[in-house]
Each structure stands twice: as C-alpha cells, then as structure tokens.
Amino acid sequence: MIALLRYESVYKAYGQNLVLRNINLDVQEHSVTCLIGASGCGKSTLLRCTNLLEEIQHGAIWLRDIDLANSQKQADDLRARVGMVFQSYNLFPHMNVLKNITLAPVKVKGERRSEAEDRARDLLQRFGLLDKALEYPDRLSGGQQQRIAIIRALAMQPEVLLLDEVTSALDPEMVGEVMDIIIELKNLNITMMLATHQMGFASQIADNVVFLDSGSIVEQGHPSQFFSNPQHERTRQFLERVTMAI
Amino acid sequence: MSTIPPPPLSDQDVADLLKPKAFWEQQGVIKSLIIALLSTIVIFGGIAFTVGRSEGWGAVQQAFFSRPDMRAAFPKVWEGFQLNIKMFMIAEPLVLAFGLILALIRIGTNPVLFPVRAIAIAYIDLFRGAPALLVIMMLGFGMPGLRISWLPNDPVFWGITACVITSSAYTAETFRAGIESVHRSQRSAARSLGLSNRQTFQHVVLPQGIKAVIPPLISGFVSLQKETALVSTIGPLEATRRAQIYSALNFNYSSYVIAALLFIALTIPLARFTDYLLQRSAKRMQMGGLA
Lengths: 246, 291
Ligand SMILES: Nc1ncnc2c1ncn2[C@@H]1O[C@H](COP(=O)(O)OP(=O)(O)O)[C@@H](O)[C@H]1O
Ligand SMILES: [Mg+2]
Fold this sequence. Notes:
The complex is a heterodimer. Chain A is an alpha/beta fold. Helix content of chain A is about 40%, strand content about 25%.
C-alpha cells in the first residue's frame, strides 16, 4: 500500500540549529499518527514543514505522488490540500465564524459564497456549533474557538489534517469537547497527524505513535506495543517522565 | 477558642446584594464626587480670581473676548472656515490613500522594488520631519515662482498638496505600525488554508492592521484639520486669515478666538469618538484574552 504522506530523509534547520534530522516516516491513508516527545523536539516543525509553512533543507515529503517540499510553484494549491490546526486556534478575529470558515473555500477554491456557506452550516450543525455561526471569535470560549478552527480546516476538504497540540492552550474542562471532535473525525476515516502531550489520548486514538527526540525519530509503533513494551531506553525514560508528571 | 460562625445570609439578603446599584449608590462614589467638586471649585476659582483681579484683565478681555467683535467677525470667519473644511475633505482621502500606498511599498520585500522602497523611505523620513509650515511655504511660493506654464498657481491647490505630502508621510508610518502589529500566527493560519501571499495580506493582515490603528488615524485627522490653518500663510482666505484681516482692521483679537472655537468644535466629536473606540477595544481585550 502506498502511503498518503511519505517523509524521506528530511532535514530541517533554523539557521545553525538542526531541528529535524533524517526523518523517514509513512502516514497511511485513513490512519491517525501521533507525534510525541519533549517540548522542543521538533513536533511543530515537522507539521509546519508538511504544510509548507517552513522550507526543509534536504529530503522529500511526498503527498501521494507529489513532492511537497520541492514544488514551490504550486505551493499554495498544495497547502490547501493539507489542513492544519494550531495550538492557539488562530481564528481571524475580524471575521465572524461563518466568514472564517468560508474565506478559503471562496477565495482559494472559487466556490460560490452561498454554496460554501451551506456547507459551513452543515459542518457547524454536525459538531453542535450552528448557533455560533454569526458570532465573532472573541465571544467564544477556547474550546469553541478550537472546534471552529478544526471545522475551518475541514471545510477545505484536505487530504490530511495536521493538529498541533490543539488542546494545550485550553482550560481542562474544554479539552474533552475538542478530543471528542477528533475522535469523531477518526470515525469518519479522516487521515490525521497530531502532536500531543496526552499519552492517554494518543494510545486511544493512534494507529501509529511516533516518538521524536532532538529532531530524530527514535521509535514508532502501534500504541498497544509502543506504550506497553517500548524498545528504546530513551523512549522508556520519556514515558516514565510523562507518566510521573501525571 | 471556638466561635460560632454567623448564620448564612437569607435569600432576600443575597438578592439585595445582587441588585444592580444606581451610579451614586456605589461604594465611594459620593465621596469622590464631593472631592472632585471641591477641587474644581478651588482650582478654577483660584484661576478666575487671580486672572480677574489682575491689573490687565479688563484690557485682555476687551482684546480677546469682546462679544461685539466676536459677533461682527463671525460671518467672515465662518465663511473662511468652510474653506478649511473643504481643504480637509479633499486632503484626508488623499492622505489615507497615499499613506497606505507608501506603507505597502515600505513593507514589501520584493528585491525588484528595492529602488522604489528606498525612495519611499527617504520620502517618509524627509516629510515626517519637515515642519508643515515650511512645506506649505515652499510649495505655495516656490512652485508658482518657477513660472512653468502648466503648473497650477492656485495657492489652495498648493496648500492642499503640501498638507497631503506631510500628513501622508506620517500616516504611512501609522499604517505600517498597524500592519506589523498583526501576529505572525494569523499569517500562518491563512497560508495553511491555501490563501496566497497576496490574499493573506488583503483579507487577513491588512484589515486587522488598519483596525488596530484607527484611533491614531483619527488623531491624524485632527492634526490635518489644524494644518489647514497654516495654509493662510500663502494667501487663501480661510478662517485664520479672515480672523487676521478682521483683527488688523479693528485692532481686536476676538476674531482669532472665534476661529479657534470653530476648530475646537470640529475636533471634539472626533476626540470623543476615538475615546469610545479605545474603550471598546480595551473591553474586547479583557473578554477575548488570547484573541
Ligand atoms: N521559527 C523558529 N525559528 C528558530 N528556531 C525555531 C523556530 N521554531 C522552532 N524553533 C526551534 O526548533 C526546535 C523545535 O521546535 P518545535 O518544532 O516547536 O518543537 P515542539 O513542537 O516539539 O515543542 C526548538 O529548539 C525551537 O527552539
Ligand atoms: Mg510545538
């Protein structure tokens, strides 16, 4: 089976600081991949490179048969095929919810406004947020904002959805509602790649857990093996530390 | 030592606690009002007393605040003031448009446009620092002095041009500050949805940047209104010039006071509007937190 996303010896540096080293990874269609690792290990950078928000210095990132990292010309089109949700929501504060969701479908895909709005309302309805359609982001709770941000990314019908610690900025009582939406997306067979600090959630939702340390993939595997029987000393230490913290 | 805690408040007492209070019922309001009142009486009373008792007050009052002179000067000053308004109304849209264009040129990073950017930077440095009065005089006297047949020699035209030149340099920096204040993550979010660089700027960065600097832009409106008065130095019969003429003929400065009052009357609504906008955005900050 050919992977939806394939990373081939990806290297990324910020100036003199090598942040990703020789990343080789396959992401299968309809699968959920969880990136875990200490703060600063390169999770966000890997996701941002996949979304072409950052350039890599070496290697290739294949989306099916296109090398994302080396096709600058169609970068905008490719970016639209990869959705991304950020830790800090990043809704557009000067637009209401409906406008936030429909901006890209209308401007990038050239959808008719009425069409895009109908679809946006469908999505809002499905995730129980239809009554917020005309609100501005500053009137919404963090959990609601993050769910809208996820819907905004989904409205572009991306082939893969990247989620960068989407629950980390939330008050504890709102984490659940955002996790629920992610679980729902998994049930809809949407391909996802998410960076998370929540091991419980990762073991519940992941098909593949990837442990990054200082920019390298140390170990990956199905959560049933990964968490119960880690192969590498560094993985064991990391898991011990995070479970101690909880 | 064991103390018995007091009984909880009855429902009625709790309801009373929650009842909205009128402004003057709130804690400390009465006291603050009294202190403000007393201090106002003391300060303004003191000033009025000192000025009123001074030897020259009668003469000053006659020279600056003479009612009959104000009444007599008003029609001409008012007529002149309409020219100020006209100059302002023509200049302000040009200032906004030109200022925005300058800011966009300055912010750009396209290497091909480097020479244009260098010119924009030089222009902004030059005219933001140059006193408006000097620019008005140089254009108003200098340009017609060149005797180039196709150049207009209407001083109103050159006055407006000078105002636009100086204000737009200043306004460009205001726009730039606003645009640069928009957080990087907004750009990431827009790009990640597939918006092009241009679309991101047009739909996400620019609207937020402009919104952030509306209060300083309105302050700029007020400065521009006042700058139109400086155009009098090159001849047009606007309000201050009219006031000057009256004053020269009648040996009385009350006409200037009338002109000043007209300018003030125009700026106060703008000032209150700015306050309102600032207050509203402060409230939003409190509510929005992260956003
Ligand atoms: N824009 C940037 N410029 C320079 N260095 C960066 C930038 N973003 C991240 N880094 C560095 O890259 C490393 C990886 O960061 P990041 O990918 O954010 O880690 P994580 O998401 O796993 O916490 C860190 O050392 C961080 O300091
Ligand atoms: Mg991160």
